[in-house]
Amino acid sequence: VQLVESGGGLVQPGGSLRLSCAASEFTISRYVMRWYRQAPGKERELVATIASVGDGTNYADSVKGRFTISRVNAKNTVYLQMNSLKPEDTAVYFCNARRGINDYWGQGTQVTVSS
Question: Under 8 Å CB-to-CB from 109, ≥6 apart: which residues?
């Protein structure tokens, strides 16, 4: 079982990035998928959630209106579109898949917002 994040990097304030999370050896359509982030010296923070049924979404107040989580089941991939990025969005972003006792994490991808 594997989750692999990609798409992180260095971007200027106001810029955009799209993170991808590709899953293998399980089907993401059956899982609640989430993006978390962790900044240096801070606790891991839930950023966005997409439900396994109906694709309902939920966002942290700090990213609402700027970030969009989505999934393409045919590609077994979840995305996080991040717009209007701010320096405080700088963190390592992690993908998570959860269903019952199954709880999978990716290795994380670094996002740095700086001029």
Answer: 5, 6, 7, 8, 19, 92, 93
- Within 26-76, strands assigned E span 32-38, 45-50, 57-59, 67-72
pLDDT digits 0-9 by tens, 67-113: 999 999 999 999 999 999 999 999 999 999 999 999 999 999 999 99
* CB burial readout 57-70, b (16+ within 10 A) else e: eebeeebeeebbbe
Q: The tokens of 63 are what?
A: 């990213």
First-to-last alpha carbon distance for the chain, in angstroms, is: 37
